[in-house]
Design goal:
The chain has about 475 residues and is an alpha/beta fold. The chain has two domains: about 180 residues, Aspartate Aminotransferase, domain 1 (Alpha-Beta Complex), CATH 3.90.1150; about 240 residues, Type I PLP-dependent aspartate aminotransferase-like (Major domain) (Aspartate Aminotransferase, domain 2, 3-Layer(aba) Sandwich), CATH 3.40.640. It is about 40% helix and about 15% strand. The strands form eight sheets. A five-stranded mixed sheet has the order 2-10-9-8-7, with helices on both faces. It has a three-stranded antiparallel sheet with strand order 12-17-14. A two-stranded parallel sheet has the order 1-13. Strand 7, helix 7 and strand 8 form a beta-alpha-beta unit. It is globular, with a radius of gyration of 22 Å. The site of pyridoxal-5'-phosphate (PLP) has 14 residues, from helix 4 and helix 5.
């Protein structure tokens, strides 16, 4: 059969509440044009994130009853640890409540003020946790390979090490897949060469493993078809010193994360902070049942049928948007389709937040919640001068929750994006009226630059797609 179907069927369903455009207009105003402030029940299709939004399998739900909730030494921890050790090959595994707790604890132990951490691209919480230790997070993305736009630029890394010296780099990272750079994978060749380069300078490599299974699948599809996904995963992690993982992605869990490493001394030093802020090392901020769900979820996320279905869902959405001339990052990764909002809305300057303007327009059009990854997320306002910095890319991420939406949901999304695309030249920009100092996209409030954001009608001409 050529048709790829969801490798599961529904047993429990969650009803969607439908809203009118007027209701959405009111909700949007109340939310300060920031979709993080919306009530989830006012959203029809929620593509804000793929994080913690997966549908769990009946096997995972069944583990809830098996969960051992003992404070210390619960058997769920040992099942969880065995899975992580078996799949990723690390002896020491510390659970945490989510990925950013892993970042805070690991960087708190390893990173000193004035130092540098390198990566293909740091995710926003990763960057913030490095910077909160007074260090700098430096990105070296390499988009030269069309199939592996998540690669790290090895020449730039080498130059940086030569210029700044090993002592200024306590650890180096790679984010798999590269979420902030379009969810693109890094190739096995690139990862292995990066690890070898770091090793030759005695710099530890830590992997941000949030979407490790998806990265491994794309390596299988685009680079090493002869290897199994598990073999690829093992080759990747074998050359690293440790990893941080938000299990809310490829752990197919609604909550959780972990730090894993090889060195017992490092693990011991991390445990102190873990006990202080997350909990005893055999539960680390999670209940026993969460540990069970993650253990099961990691194995499910590595199944070929599941990964193929995931690839085909993302491609289905991307191909139809490509066919309609909507500017996307191509080829898409697995967890999201990224619209290039700068090309979609060329009449808006970065300071007019084209990505956020598009996100608001999609919500008004059809109750779809997407996420801006551009100047709202990464720009800064200088508190003294009031000057704004902008970001190099203005993207809108349509993240695909795992095992949640079907093809007809994506047809609905495609129709909505195309409708907004048809009248894109009438969309207005936004200005920020209130923002915090750090991670502003979560809580900033905005207003339309020209009073009203709605009732933009009309049709405008096409722009082409571009490659990542
Ligand atoms: C690549 C990457 N790293 C780290 C995190 C942080 O994980 P969490 O949301 O579980 O704190 C995320 C979350 O989206 C992510 O995408």
């Amino acid at each position: 059969m050529k048709t790829v179907i969801e490798p599961f069927r529904a047993k429990v369903i969650e009803s969607i509440k439908f809203t009118t455009e007027e209701e959405r207009e009111t909700a949007l105003k109340l939310a300060g044009y920031n979709l993080f402030h919306l009530k989830a029940e006012d959203v029809i299709i929620d593509l804000l994130t793929d994080s913690g939004t997966s549908a769990m399998s009946s096997e995972q739900w069944s583990r809830l009853m098996v969960g051992d909730e003992s404070y210390a030494g619960c058997s769920s921890y040992f099942r969880f640890k065995d899975t992580v050790s078996k799949v990723l090959g690390f002896e020491h595994v510390l659970p945490v409540h989510q990925g950013r707790a892993a970042e805070r604890i690991l960087f708190g132990a390893l990173v000193k003020p004035g130092q540098h951490v390198l990566s293909n691209t740091h995710f926003d919480t990763t960057r913030a946790n490095i910077e909160s230790n007074g260090a700098q997070a430096i990105d070296f993305p390499d988009s030269g390979n069309r199939e592996f736009c998540g690669n790290i630029d090895l020449r730039a890394v080498k130059r940086f090490i030569d210029e700044h010296g090993r002592s200024s780099i306590p650890l180096s990272m790679i984010t798999l897949t590269n979420n902030s750079a379009g969810g693109q994978p890094a190739s096995l060749e690139n990862i292995l060469a990066y690890a070898a380069l770091l090793k030759s300078h005695d710099i530890p490599l830590f992997i941000d493993a949030a979407r490790f299974a998806e990265n491994a699948w794309l390596i299988k599809r685009r680079e090493r078809p002869e290897l199994s996904v598990l073999d690829i995963v093992r080759q990747i992690f074998e050359v690293s010193d440790g990893c941080m993982m938000s299990a809310k992605k490829d752990g197919l869990s609604n909550m959780g994360g972990f730090i894993a490493c090889r060195e017992a001394d490092l693990c011991d030093s991390l445990k102190q902070n873990l006990i202080l802020t997350e909990g005893f090392p055999t539960y680390g901020g999670l209940s026993g049942r969460d540990l069970e769900c993650i253990a099961r979820g990691i194995n499910e996320a590595l199944e070929d049928e599941y990964l193929l279905y995931r690839e085909k869902s993302t491609l289905y959405l991307a191909q139809r948007l490509n066919d309609a001339g909507v500017p996307l990052i191509n080829p898409p990764g697995l967890h999201a389709v990224y619209i290039d909002a700068a090309k979609f809305l060329p009449h808006l300057e970065p300071r007019e937040l084209p990505g956020q303007a598009l996100v608001c327009a999609l919500y008004l059009e059809a109750g779809i919640r997407a996420c801006e990854i551009g100047t709202l997320m990464f720009g800064r306002r200088d508190l003294q001068s009031g000057a704004e910095t902008t970001h190099s890319a203005e993207l809108v991420r349509l993240a695909l929750p795992r095992r949640v939406y079907s093809q007809s949901h994506y047809d609905y999304v495609i129709e909505a994006v195309c409708n907004v695309f048809d009248r894109r030249s009438f969309l207005k920009g936004l200005r920020i009226v209130q923002q915090p100092e750090c991670l502003r996209h979560f809580s900033a409030r905005m207003e339309p630059i020209e009073n009203s954001f709605t009732h933009q009608s009309g049709v405008s001409g096409g722009v082409g797609n571009y490659e990542c």
